[in-house]
Design goal:
Helix content is 59%, strand content 5%. By secondary structure, the chain is mainly alpha-helical. The protein contains 5 helices and 2 strands. Strand 1 and strand 2 form a beta hairpin. It is extended and about 75 Å long. Helix 3 runs antiparallel to helix 4. Strands 1-2 form a two-stranded antiparallel sheet. It has 3 domains: 34 residues; 62 residues, no CATH class; 60 residues, no CATH class.
């Protein structure tokens, strides 16, 4: 009897490993397919470790609107135009423009998630707060397979 349980456990483990390997293979194919394709978001890291994200076709207006909103908030908060050295995401309680504290920002994301009535949206926001990034269908190719797996595991954990 103990041998049958052990065999069943080994088969389940082998199946899980095969499914994970298949997921990683599909992710690698997606990364290769979308690399450099302007229809999809692109993320490039330079030699100094700076990351540049370029929106995919059709997303430019949405990104531009979000940046305009941040500029308006900046102007309302500090009474001047945002300069090239000013943070886009700033601490609204500071007297001078300083970057928002990441811990504070994630705490606010968690508070907002708790108010969500849609369990899927709530899980995605909480996973974002856990991981520090959000994986979507449109951007999953810009993350490693391990990052995608970690994010999706966090979503599942928050879905209960």
């Amino acid at each position: 009897m103990a041998g049958k349980k052990k065999d069943a456990k080994q088969r389940r483990r082998a199946k899980r490993l095969a499914e994970r390997a298949d997921q990683f293979e599909r992710h690698a194919a997606l990364v290769n397919q979308r690399a450099g394709d302007s229809r999809f978001v692109q993320r490039v890291t330079d030699a100094q470790g700076r990351v540049t994200v370029t929106p995919g076709e059709g997303e430019e207006a949405q990104v531009a609107d979000a940046l305009r909103q941040q500029e308006e908030l900046f102007r309302a908060e500090f009474g001047r135009e945002m300069g090239p050295d000013d943070p886009v995401f700033f601490d609204p309680d500071a007297d001078e423009p300083v970057p928002v504290d990441p811990d504070r920002m994630m705490a606010e994301v968690r508070q907002e998630a708790e108010r969500m009535t849609d369990p899927q949206m709530r899980a995605y926001l909480l996973a974002f707060a856990d991981c520090g990034y959000m994986v979507t269908e449109a951007n999953q190719h810009t993350f490693s397979a391990h990052q995608v797996e970690a994010f999706m595991d966090a979503v599942e954990r928050h879905l209960g």
